[in-house]
Write a structure and sequence with these properties.
Layout lengths: L11 H13 L13 H4 L19 H18 L4 E7 L21 H9 L1 E7 L4 H10 L3 H4 L19 H7 L3 E7 L17 E5 L14 H4 L2 H9 L5 E6 L3 E7 L8 H19 L3 E6 L22 H22 L6 E7 L25 H4 E7 L8 E3 L3 E2 L2 H9 L20 H5 L9 E6 L2 E7 L2 E4 L2 E4 L13 E4 L5 E4 L11 H4 L1 H20 L7 E2 L1
Parallel strand pairs: 1-7, 1-8, 2-10, 2-11, 3-4, 3-7, 13-18
Antiparallel strand pairs: 2-9, 4-5, 5-6, 8-9, 12-13, 13-14, 14-17, 15-16
Helix pairs in contact: 1-16, 10-11
């Protein structure tokens, strides 16, 4: 049976044509389809495009005026632009922290993270990418990873290159901010593409991913206890250093990371972040700090002060408690220095929980996990805290994509995103400052697009989700967990379509039975997304089905 084709003959079929055209003729766009035609394509679509190379957004004038007035009043009061602190946990599950149903009920209380939700804005539909590197690329550049080419997690000795991208850190550094990154980079080891070379004034962390350095992890005795295999593993090329670097002062490796000293990495990152914040305040300059935990990515090993702190006494839950403690350290420091009311804090995870180390891994109420575009793989915690600026106790299911943090950070800092990036590239992020700052703000995002690396996977609009492909974990007699070792690509005869309010675990497609009206929005959205790929060719060679 053919796919449903939505309004005016523009639907998933046209999107497929747009993507196919992109592969053959990068600048071609389907006849009759322009990037500014959202509402003309379907009356259900309300977003407007203010710049051709920017994702269209809902226009909400009253809350935009409220947000701007708040920012202007704050600047008049402090004489400085707001600080921005981004907290990214590695592989934390949606359901791990108390604010999202975990915490004490899982034996690992998270009072400091829960406080951010209680005193700020809790988002229930924050979307990351399916894995580490793609999310970090989206967060830093405001672009879907298929556009930047950073599609998959980077391993030792990778050749990933982010040097041609415009990072928020580069823009804000030029605008007078002190910019720093602590912890996990994971956007490439390549010289010229390291944090201090692409916009961060300072960096203290590692370039890859923690488990790549934990060669002697006891869970792999077949390697650890075999001298020949262990020697081969150790000889593999790649950077295993903990780095201390600055844009002006150069870089030097501090030490080699190994199984034993990896337990203390997050405490070291917290020390650096605290010091950076203190120095920025002393210098009288606003800061943009991206704090990236090494935990709770396997192989977890909590620092000694947190061993056995969880009710279960396992390494994962102990590590969750350590992460929460560090969140408390940093937010309490903002209060101690009397800058909490001038600092936007965003707490999130880079993807859903990984399940290859199950059961010592994260929890999600949704189907799927890391590595999939099922809700369990891409729907993550999203907490915003800004005392005096964000109304306490707010909860919203408004859509927020990780790319939005790029635009939002720039706007909060008084910088125009449209004047900050070259016109030859497409920006998928949306300014969400009014969503955050208006007391009853609505999301300015109309849709979230999903990609599994180079394969288009679908779109969410309101509470409907259309999936043109899925990566599922577990089939037949295999249990519905197990991580990427049990993953398989599923291509439906028709697109899957889910009502996420009625079916949050995506168990039954309703495409044929109930989804005619939603298709009049979802089909055109996919087509228009394909048109952006045709007009602004991505760095990756893309696939549609």
């Amino acid at each position: 049976m053919k796919r449903i084709i939505a309004a005016a003959g523009l639907g998933v079929g046209v999107a497929a044509a747009a993507l196919a055209q992109q592969a053959q003729s990068p600048m071609s766009v389907p006849a009759g389809l322009t990037l500014g035609s959202m509402s003309r394509v379907s009356p259900l679509l309300k977003a407007e495009r203010t710049h051709e190379n920017f994702e269209p957004a809902l226009v909400l004038p009253k809350q935009e005026q409220t947000a701007q007035a708040k920012l202007e009043a704050l600047f008049k009061k402090t004489g400085k632009r707001p600080n921005i602190l981004i907290l990214v946990v590695d592989d934390l599950g949606y359901g791990d922290v108390g604010a999202y149903g975990g915490g004490e009920s899982l034996g690992a209380p998270t009072p400091h993270i829960d406080r951010l939700a209680r005193e700020g804005l809790k988002l229930t539909s924050t979307y990351a990418q399916p894995s580490c590197t793609p999310t970090r690329a989206a967060l830093n550049t405001g672009r879907l990873p298929v556009r930047s080419g950073l599609l998959t997690p980077k391993l030792l000795n990778d050749t990933a290159d982010v040097s041609s991208e415009t990072l928020a850190s580069r823009v804000l550094s030029s605008a007078g901010y002190r910019t720093a990154m602590s912890g996990k980079w994971h956007l490439g080891e390549k010289d010229g593409s390291r944090p201090w070379q692409v916009g961060f004034d300072e960096f203290y962390g590692f370039l890859g991913v923690a488990n790549a350095y934990q060669e002697e992890h006891p869970s792999a005795p077949d390697v650890v206890n075999d001298p020949e295999l262990l020697a081969e593993l150790r000889s593999m090329p790649g950077d295993r250093n903990l780095w201390r670097a600055s844009k002006d002062g150069g870089a030097k490796p501090v030490e080699k990371i190994n199984w034993e000293n990896s337990r203390d990495l997050d405490e070291k990152f917290a020390d650096f972040s605290e010091d950076f914040i203190r120095r920025s305040v002393k210098a009288g300059k606003p800061f943009y700090l991206s704090h990236n935990f090494s935990k709770v990515h396997y192989f977890n090993m909590p620092s000694k002060g947190f061993v056995g702190r969880s009710a279960t006494k396992d390494v994962y839950r102990d590590s969750v408690i350590e992460v929460d403690d560090i969140v408390g350290r940093l937010t309490h420091l903002l209060e101690e220095l009397k800058i909490a009311d001038n600092t936007l804090v965003f707490f999130t995870s880079d993807n859903g929980p990984e399940e290859d180390s199950y059961p010592e891994s994260g929890v999600t109420p949704f189907r799927g996990a890391k590595g999939t575009t099922l809700e369990g793989g891409v729907r993550v915690p999203g907490l915003f805290w800004w005392p005096g600026m964000i109304k306490p106790g707010r909860v919203s299911d408004g859509l927020f994509d990780m790319t939005d943090m790029f635009n939002t950070s720039l706007v909060v800092a008084g910088v125009d995103p449209a004047k900050s990036v070259p016109a030859d590239r497409y920006i998928d992020g949306i300014d969400q400052s009014s969503f955050l700052l208006a007391d009853n703000g609505q999301s300015a995002r109309e849709a979230v697009y999903l990609w599994n690396a180079d394969l288009f996977a679908g779109v969410r609009w309101r509470y409907y989700k259309m999936a043109t492909s899925e990566i599922r974990v577990g089939s037949g007699n295999v249990r519905d967990f197990g991580g990427l070792d049990n993953a398989e690509v599923v291509t439906p005869l028709n697109s899957f379509m889910y009502n996420l309010y009625l079916d949050p675990r995506e168990r039954k497609s309703i495409l044929i039975e109930k989804a005619w009206v939603p298709s009049y929005a979802l089909g055109p959205l996919v087509a228009l997304h394909g048109a952006t790929m045709a007009k602004y060719p991505p760095k990756a060679k893309i696939r549609f089905r």
